[in-house]
Amino acid sequence: MVKHPIVLSLLAYVIAIGQIALAQNRVSGSVVDSITGKRLAFVTVRLTDHNQKPLQNFISDTLGRFYFEQVPPGSYRILCSMTGYVLKKSEPFMVSNSGVELPPFLMIRAGETLAEVTVTAQGRPLSTRIDGFVYHADRETQEAGETAVDLLRKLPGVQVDQNGAPHMRGSNRIKVFIDGRPFMTYANSVTEALRQVPADNIKTVEIITHPSARYDSEGADGVINIFTKRPMEDGVSGTVNGILANRFNELTGAITWRRRQVVIGADIGHSASDNTTTSVLDRTDHSVNNGRLLQQKEINNESENLFSGIHVIYLPDTLTTFNAGYRYGGDWFGAKSSLNSLMGSDAFTRTIDNPAFRYLHGINWGWLRRSRDGSTEYNVMGYWFYQGQLNRYLLDQYRWQQKNYAEKNFNLLGNREFSFQADVRKDFGNDSELELGLKGAFRKFSNENRFDVFDFSQSVYLPNSLRADRFWFNWIIAAAYATYTLNLDSWKIKIGGRYEHTHWPLHFRDTSLRIPDYQNFLPNLIISKTISTHHSVGAGYTKKLLRPYINYLNPVINYIDSLNLEYGNPYLKPAITHSYELTYTFQKSAGLLNVALFYNHTGNSIEQVRIAQPDGIVANTYANVAAYDVLGASINASLRLQRFTFTATNTTRYLGFSSQNGYPFRDGFIISQGVDASFKPTASLTIRVYANLNSRTVNFQGHTTGVQSYTLLINKELLDGKLNFSARCDNLSTPYRYVTEVTAAETFNQHIESRYINRFFRVAVRWKLGKREVKRPVVNEIGGY
């Protein structure tokens, strides 16, 4: 800590100033029953201007208290409403430059029970914050059959690739959380997790382009926080979704039950898909006479996915939340492929049957407590998950139509992790707050690999001990962080730091590799200046630690293609990134424009490399290169009117790779563009179009051609919104997508052209069960629930 006296001094100074700003312009009060004098919880309290136009909303807590922060000087009224009571309106009152404590509001019981009341509030679906955006999904109608993948395409600053993975500013190192839990407790991959969350069940999405020290430093170029809806009233509700498509079908259901302080929710789903891809590889090895390799590959993929989960939320009062959940995911993959290889005069064909089964068990739990005055929040959460995967393949090789070689493989992978985190957040009023936290993560990864080679003389498979291997590691990470947000009129500063200690011993079947522990202090700073009501500018700096992913480390060799081997590198070192950014934001009424200039410098960057080996073999693995620099600009625009919405995101990057290991310097521009537009000719009909345009990507040893796609969707609501029907078409005029990958290494050149099925037709139906949804204003809720 002594190494950073300037940072600590600045943090102490900022905290001291923040104490001065305590409780500025706060309006507070309480609500009680006029007869019994009992304080009333769950009363909807609205702060309005003198014309009774809603400005802020709050739900009273267990003590009947309510609070409104950052209230500008002026004249206001308070409106209190609750089922079974007469609407209460206050007399006008004035707010100056100090807090206002109002006398208790006496709620008068109605003569008879009131009918169900729908309370609505007009608010912008999209708002900005110092570190990104917030999208209120519940303020807009979501299409039937759409998932979080499709919803993210609507949001500025986010682009979604063909596989459903989100990108921010050109990076796929994005952390995704669902109801505060990392996606690993939800599904086996980010894409699967997002596809399991129906768009109509999402309440808010936070898009954080500049993650603070609160988040793990590992690869956090951006954060996406998804919060799902929770019922505010007793009863049962649910949805059933069905999708039928030319290469995909799915049936899912979800149900939620609430009885007073207990909320129980469950969901289950099954999907199946099939796809065929073909590719042609052409490689010239300059170090070998007649060293040209031609390969043709065709893969028929089939998959099935079953997922289910249950969660329980207990609210003993409006200040406390307990929650726990369990989730299961099972994926079956079947890949049957043929590989034709020709190098010189040597030609052979391989047929491979490669089934795999992958499963997930995830458990999470948490406790959240808010102080009575609402200024302090305590949060403790933990999760445990186990990801298991069983891979097999059976390979037959033919020369001149005669079988001359065969092998089979057994591969068992296990990845389990237990993590816990404790956080404290202190609100000093006037949008100033302090966050402190601790985290511990304990991971155990193992991979056991076995090969059997067919002995033609004995007509039996025999184990090959030279290729069998076992690899495992125990990974322990301890972290602590602190962030402080200071609001000084038109200035807002968010400063923080995170300390991480990593313990990481690796083990092989017959040896072990001791990697020294490493400790890192990772500072973070954002400064924002509001120029006027609609304009603001900002600047930020972040230091990030990029640990290698598991598949980057795993040394087990994949021999399916004997001329293109694949394996990880357990000797990889972590990389350090320094990120700088300048931003400008304009927001007025329904329009938003955000422009960001950014520069990232990564030392010891981890990149995929292809290395030539004897006999025309190329190894695909990973290595630490000297440096990776990115200079870019991101332009995000959004327009949201009553019947028309439009979002556009453009990211342009100039990147360069430099190396001290003999690799040439490589650089280039990458441009990616996403556009989403929807139009509602009537209240029940929506027409939506979105498109992605991506230029070629530059990598360490070559480039890959760009990808373009577009989608047209029509959604119709029936039966007062209970039934939704949608029809969708992707890439109508382009049935196939062709992608060319070029590698220019020191001793060889390689081209791979792949063809994917591109055209996609889909119809979807969504049926809402139970009580009709009551749209409510945004309120202060416990833990996002």
UniProtKB/TrEMBL annotation:
Domain TonB-dependent receptor plug per the UniProt entry, residue ranges: 142-223
What's the protein name?
A: TonB-dependent receptor
Identify the residues that the record assigns to the Outer membrane protein beta-barrel domain, covering every copy: 391-767
Instruction: Kindly name one Pfam family recorded for this protein.
Output: OMP_b-brl_3
Which keywords does this Swiss-Prot/TrEMBL entry list? Cell outer membrane, Membrane, Receptor
**Transmembrane regions listed in the UniProt entry:** none
According to its UniProt record, where is this protein located?
Cell outer membrane
Read off the lineage from the record: Bacteria, Pseudomonadati, Bacteroidota, Sphingobacteriia, Sphingobacteriales
Primary localization class, coarse: membrane
Organism, scientific name: Parapedobacter defluvii
Cited InterPro entries: Beta-barrel_TonB_sf, CarboxyPept-like_regulatory, OMP_b-brl_3, Plug_dom, Plug_dom_sf
Coiled-coil region list: none
